[in-house]
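As a warm-up, study this chain.
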Amino acid sequence: MSKYPIIVFEGIEASGKSTSIKKVIKYFKKNKIIYLSFREPGGTNLSEKLRSLMLNKKSALSNKTDLFLLMASRSENIDKIIKENHKKKVILIDRFIDSTLAYQHYGMKLDKGLILKMNNFLLGNLRPNFTFLSIVNKKNMLNRLKLRKYKNKYDNFDYNFYNKVQKGFLKIANKNKSKYLILDTNKDNVKIIENKLINKIKKILN
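Now compare it with the structure written out below.
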């Protein structure tokens, strides 16, 4: 494992993904571990503008347009964030290449081969070293979404869509189990999940 690994956090809406990132960042700060974190879509100034365009509930972008905007954002992030920092900082990413496959292919039925080719073109030899995948059931997901004060376009799909996306994530993770840890936020409380996270982070960094 790299001294400064690229660590990704994946999962559908309200799965607990963002909470997991916050726990890891808290641990890094406490232990003075040098890191950099960003989200997708988002990251650079341009990528954040693309995020606003994509997630706006009033935007009527097609699924194909969403895909190309995502890839444009990723191109910026790879060139201006990851390549410039991955040899000197641990990189934490809130959504990355698996999200594109899960949402745009498994959820929206866009061509898998095209998505893989685009990712390979942008990434070159770079790949995430490890991925944490948070999963959630229908009841918990819907209850958590109700509590959100601000919702974007991706918070407003029906559950059937999210179910397809989550199954897609699990298919991806099960193909390379050594590089994934699945966090079941339905059965484990926050403290148990935090312990699993930090224990795995320690192993990744050692």
